[in-house]
Specification:
By secondary structure, this protein is α+β, with helices and mostly antiparallel strands. Helix content is 16%, strand content 29%. The strands form 3 sheets. A 3-stranded antiparallel beta sheet has the order 2-1-8, covered by helices on one side. A 3-stranded antiparallel beta sheet has the order 5-6-7. α1 packs parallel to α2. This is Spore coat protein Z.
């Protein structure tokens, strides 16, 4: 999937995340086993995909470093947690996005130092959303589609 060309902006990350949002909202050629293109196809429900998928988890990179988001849990202490994994909720025309932090409920490390510190087998939506300017990112990695909402 090319980032540039017809029907694309000048921002690759924005274009890919916009496609993910469209696929997630719709719940509607395979080159790689794990890629953004394959995750979007899995989410849309080709014949070989498991049912119930609703999220393409993404990692974002800024200046070649993996982006880590922070937010407060809705608990008594408003505990601040971190995550490297996100569900794209919305991308506007200016390439600003709302991202929801994804975490594995069994993952007790509240502040992972790098993406490999987080478990990804059971990523779930946290309800913690952050706003980002996608023009600040230079790279996106998609994980296989998961059921993160139900």
């Amino acid at each position: 999937m090319s980032c540039r060309g017809k029907d694309h902006t000048e921002n690759c990350v924005c274009d890919i995340l916009r496609q993910i949002v469209d696929a997630q909202n719709d719940i509607v050629e395979h080159d790689c086993d794990v890629s953004c293109k394959q995750s979007i196809e899995d989410l849309l429900g080709d014949r070989t995909s498991p049912a119930g998928l609703d999220t393409v988890p993404v990692l974002l990179y800024c200046e070649c470093k993996t982006f880590k988001g922070f937010g407060a849990m809705n608990d008594q202490n408003n505990t601040v947690v971190a995550s490297f994994y996100f569900r794209v909720k919305k991308v506007d025309d200016d390439c600003c996005a709302v991202l929801e932090l994804l975490r594995d409920p069994a993952d007790s490390d509240r502040n992972p130092k790098d993406p490999t510190d987080q478990k990804t087998a059971n990523l779930r939506a946290t309800g913690i959303c952050i706003n980002v300017d996608l023009k600040c990112f230079c790279h996106v990695t998609c994980l296989p589609a998961v059921d993160a909402i139900n």
